[in-house]
Input
Amino acid sequence: MDLHKNAKDVINQIAIVVRTSQIHDANNVAIASSISKIVSMINMLLDKESLIHLELRGELFYINEYRIRYSLEYLLNFDFLVREFKKRDLGSVTFKNQLKTEDIKTFTRAFITAPFSDEPFDVFQEKMSAIQNIEIGRLKKIVEDEDSFDVRKMIKRSYFNAVSHTRGIMNKVKSGEKVNIKKAKRIMESMVDHILEEEQLLLGMTAIKDYDEYTYHHSVNVSILSIALGQRLGISRKMLTELGMVALFHDTGKTEVPPEVLNKPTNFTDDEWKIIKKHPMWGLRAILKLKNLDELTMKSAIASFEHHMNIDHTGYPTVRLKTELDLFSRIVSLADQYDAMTSSRVYSRTPLPPDKALSIMMERSGTQLDPLLFKFFINMVGVYPIGTVVMLDSKELGLVSESNQLFPTRPRVLLIIDRQGNRMTGHIVDLTEKDEQDHYMRSIIKTIDPNKYKINLAEYLL
Ligand SMILES: [Fe+2]
Ligand SMILES: [Fe+2]
Output
């Protein structure tokens, strides 16, 4: 057993025990075997280390001061455990001596029952008082500290970097110059890394729609949404990079649409629509012209050609042989529709609030959109996606800043207008928070169209 190599297994195993204990009772066979796995794992680690200190900082786990890297296969269990720790105000667990099965059993029992009280951490600690080998510590609250500020800055930089490269690439395609695919690939690789670690921040970047030159932002947004969706499907890191590239190039054909049509502030005429509808075909042609005809180029060409077709072939272009669309095309068209509908510069002139866009997509699910992929998509962006403006029963107005996978209707919300109607900044509330009577402090009453209140999302999310 190696501490660094097996750290993620420890997290994973604890998550499994907690998860199964929430469903089954303590005498269940599955729980018993998971518990004995943890015991032997930690005891083996304790052969080499004097203690094992597991700590949650922000969204990341550290083991003996070493940051545990997210790994794709364990992602869901990691996120789950982060949330469970936070619910109990639990910040660290220290294993000090060789464990017995009974130690972990007590720990699990305390862990499961703690959140049902007002002071979950105190109750937790009390229930653990008889256990000498395990010590727990309270969660240190970080309020937008230096670290998370730096992470935000880094994410912003890499997002805008991707946009500016996309602009460069599209201009080269337009003028027929050679495109540096390797560079695009490197950018996508780092994007995939960021999405695996800071998904919410990047999804937040895609929620801001009033950028200049929206076309390039759109391409990057569709990449981010596609990668985030692909990640949930369990696609490998290498394929996620490919998916991101394919998504980035999905609208390449638009470089040939005259800018006066593309950027027209009013609705398209029939003739203009005819031109717009050619962009999948033009994209296919432009990508095939890139010459290095490898697998990635082919995949990009296919997605460019298919992304408006719809799975029932009711879209465009129409083809005689109605075969099933490629997986990447189906992912990209979901991401594309969502981003296009929620922005004001692609096709429709009035941007839809995210939840409205989702309900339109819901109607298309099963006919035009892949229903299974759509389920994953909803799960990813949440019932109230980041950037949704919501009215709370506390008479405050807020902006959804982070979704909650377990309680989709209770995201984290940045308050923007207080009870008296005054603007406010910097105050984030968690809608799962309850008062002493066990009532939720705040709940969402309805969503609000940000345009009506002249709310500029960039002001809050950037
Ligand atoms: Fe398109
Ligand atoms: Fe698009």
Notes: Residues 218, 222, 250-251, 336, 340 surround fe (ii) ion (ligand 2) (CB under 6 Å).
